[in-house]
Amino acid sequence: MPPRSNPTARQARLGAELRKLREAAGLSTTEAGALLGGNQAQISHIEAGRWGVSAARVRQLAVHYEASHGELLDALCAMAEERGKQWWDEYRGVLAPGFLDVAELEYRAASLRSLQTVTLPGILQTEDYVRAIYGGHIPVLPADEVELRVEFRTRRQQIFARADPPSFEAFIHEAALRMRFGGGKVTRAQLSHLRAASEWPSVKVRVIPFANEEFIEATQPVLYAGGPVSELDTARVSGALGGHSLGTDAGLKKYRTLFAVADRTALGVKASRQLIHDIEKEL
């Protein structure tokens, strides 16, 4: 089977974690390949996510690497065994890979936290709000492309209908609540939907008010996905030119600190819901 030309972010993450284990063991790719009866290229392809790897092979590598973190190894084996098409695969080759990576990240997460300062969390946006966001895209998107993105983004909400939805805590700056994307009617409906979502069993919405005097260093939306073990947490940062995922120790530490600040400065759930309602009534 030829190597994958475009591994998903999750496939690349599995490879990156196996590389960390190899490097911690002080082995080169050539040495690791020899342990499997292969060569350097085999290990390089696995670690880049270009080749799939079975759970048995992951455990075989772990033995050679003398890796002893049982929960991490179990999680990596589970990642290796993920098979079958999911709903976002319908859009592969139609939407950019980053869209699919976000949907998969949300779907696989044990917990989710987001931080927004200008727009509301994508997974909690209404169709009209999404349409307004993409309607202002530069360059202008064709109408059918806008509708495709609207459909995809709103489908992401289905994770909350699962029997075991991930917990989701959304930190939203008051500025984002007051942005009138699409006009007053669209914004009012969006805020109403946000208030309703804040009462879903697995969802918490907390507002960082204008009165807060502590600087929050997050001009771009941040999605933090908790993994089955902390080593597999992922931070996803979005921007006008696309997004990127971080799984390095330094990157994760930075965003854990950022969310600690947000947690310290945001209003409680009830006070946040009341502020959203007050802003909604002003429109």
From TrEMBL:
Q: Which InterPro entries match?
A: Cro/C1-type_HTH (IPR001387), DUF5753 (IPR043917), Lambda_DNA-bd_dom_sf (IPR010982)
> SMART domains, from UniProt?
HTH_XRE (SM00530)
- Extract the CDD domains matched here: HTH_XRE
Q: Which GO terms describe its molecular function?
A: DNA binding
> Origin, by domain of life?
Bacteria
* Chain ranges of the HTH cro/C1-type domain: 18-72
Q: Which Pfam families match?
A: DUF5753 (PF19054), HTH_31 (PF13560)
> What is the official name of this protein in its record?
XRE family transcriptional regulator
